[in-house]
Amino acid sequence: MTTPARTPDDADRYRRPEPSFVRAVRAALGDARTVLEVGSGPVPYRPRDREVTAVDPTPDPLPFADDAVDAVLSTFALDRWPDLEQGLHEARRVARGPVVLLTRDPARFADSWLAEIAPEVTAAESRRWPALDRVVDALGGEVTTTTVPVPFTCVDGFTEAYYARPERLLDAAARRADPAWRAVDEMTAARSVAALRTALEDGSWDARWGRLRVTPSYPGSLVLVVARP
Q1: Count of C-beta atoms within a 10 Å radius of residue 151
Q2: Can you point out the beta strands (E) in the chain?
Q3: How much is the pLDDT for 4?
Q4: pTM of whole model > 0.85?
Q5: Helix, strand, coil percentages, rounded to 5, for the chain
Q6: Is 217 within 8 Å of 149 (Cβ atoms)?
Q7: Region 23-50: what's the mean pLDDT?
Q8: Would you say 117 and 195 are in contact if contact means Cβ atoms under 8 Å apart?
Q9: What's the chain's Rg over C-alpha atoms?
Q10: Local structure of 22: helix, strand or coil
Q11: Which of 63, 91, 103, 182 lies in the 20 to 30 Å Cα band around 1?
Q12: Coil, helix or strand for 60?
């Protein structure tokens, strides 16, 4: 049996746009006015002051002419693109300006304390996301990758949002709001939660990672990929 799907209340309480991520996306889009959004994750990061057209990821060519929009945007969604290389080629084709991707680098998941406490959860999560090198190679041309730090008070509740607040992951609703926990079966999730609770109660979590409780931001797996023409 898998972990139950999240409810709307879970989404409202635990998955909200993180302002620092919003700012990073806006800065990467620059002065683009027309934006094609190809897929969006659990939380929308599309700018509200631009003309945004949203489409679902597809293995087929995008129904737009070459250079049809100022920019292409995709946030927390590359794990759902059915043909990554084709999709990124199409994004390049239709964008006059940048292709902006807010994604996660699976190679960095192992650096999190959660990889030790809940290895099956982080392993399942890492399998979802395409390798950063693959994304960069598929885009071609001038591409920059920038780590986006996760702030201490992050309000978008994916696993790394709680790098300094591990107690939050004892809340079943917080876990339901994150696809990482829904990717493992109920018994595995329960075992991981029990390991975290034990580590918090016996002080071993704080002995190993307590410094994170006073760390303003965490350089986790979140990466901003920007391909420019």
Answers
A1: 18
A2: 34-40, 51-55, 71-75, 99-104, 142-147, 150-151, 217-218, 222-228
A3: 44
A4: yes
A5: 45, 20, 35
A6: yes
A7: 94
A8: yes
A9: 18
A10: helix
A11: 103
A12: coil
